[in-house]
Amino acid sequence: MNATTEHPVLIEVAGSIATLTLNRPGKLNALNYATIDMLQRDLDTIERDDAIGIVILTGAGDKAFSAGADIAGFSLSVEAGVTTAVRDFVGRGQALTRRIENFPKPVIAAVNGLAFGGGCEIVEACPLAIASEHARFAKPEINLGFPPTFGGTQRLPRHVGRKRALQLILTGEPIPAEEAMQIGLINEAVPAARLLKRARQLATTILGKSPAAVSACLASVTRGINLSIDEGLAVEAGQFAQLAHTADVREGIGAFLERRPARFGGHG
Predict the structure, then answer these.
(1) Can 236 be counted among the known catalytic residues?
(2) pLDDT tens-digit profile of 195-229?
(3) What is the CB-side half-sphere exposure of residue 151 using CA atoms within 13 A?
(4) Residue 72 confidence (pLDDT)
(5) Residues in CB range of 122: below 8 A, 6 or more apart
(6) What is the pLDDT of residue 74?
(7) How sure is the predictor about 2, in pLDDT bands with cuts at 50, 70 and 90?
(8) pLDDT reading at 92 higher than 50
(9) Which of 32, 136, 180, 267 reaches 20 to 30 Å from 174, CA-CA?
(10) DSSP string covering 207-258, please?
(11) Predicted pLDDT at 85
């Protein structure tokens, strides 16, 4: 899979890392329907490829990760009626963020600029996020007369708390990367020149772990976070039970007891 300039999403694979780049820099990488659909197809391809263990998602250029939904395209769906708008716009956006959130391989958002609206909602759905220091985050849908529609009213409060989330959602005001890190929306803020390098470093660290254990950790956290503690503990126990008799667990325990680095099966 090679990067091309003919598509709204570029895909490049180096070793076990797939990098997906939103490729509409002239539109601040706004999410039109073609972009959302291609992202879904690319994620399908990556999930089926056992040689790929992790995904980095970023934007083309240095201005924007994504300015959010492409309002020009969305407006046509609104004009067509509520049923069409909910199906084509809301349904599409929520399906994408749900797919990212539940993806069995880690997705790291490398936020290279502003992440507004749907772009911010993608960051919220990603299990990990690194941002350039000049990146900004905002929920400007309120200025268009409607609430966030790609999951932002649900995921943001779970990340940052109800009051902080509502301030962002109700005012539409942007926050800088440093504040986004402080409130838990992103993991780190780094100089722009180091963004992809840092994302790849994080990816490489994770790739050194058992792929099955990484997938189990993702599933345990994602499924359990909205459950009661008892239900969540049952999810955790179930994920452990699936791995208890695997070669990776035997290798991990053996390496610990023998005081040597573990050599997991890896990808491919």
Answers:
(1) no
(2) 999 999 999 999 999 999 999 999 999 999 989 99
(3) 22
(4) 85
(5) 57, 65, 66, 96, 97, 100, 109, 115, 150
(6) 83
(7) very low
(8) yes
(9) 32
(10) HTS-HHHHHHHHHHHHHHTTS-HHHHHHHHHHHHHHHTTSHHHHHHHHHHHT
(11) 84
Q: CB of 66 within 8 A of CB of 122?
A: yes
Instruction: Retrieve residue 245's tokens.
Output: 């008799």
- Residues 189 and 133: their CA atoms lie apart, in Å, by 5
Give the count of alpha carbons within 13 A of 181, CB side only.
14
CA distance 192 to 188: 12
* Averaged confidence pLDDT in the chain: 94
Identify the three-state secondary structure at position 29.
coil
What's the pLDDT score for residue 185?
Answer: 98
Which tokens belong to 267?
């990808």
Q: Is 141 marked active-site?
A: yes
H-run or E-run covering 51? none
Let me know how long the chain is: 268
Marked catalytic residue, from 121, 124, 178, 179: 121
Contact 147, 141 (CB under 8 A): yes
Residue that wins the pLDDT comparison between 142 and 266: 142
The DSSP letter of residue 78 is H
Which single residue is written with the structure tokens 């263990």? 53
DSSP code at position 15: T
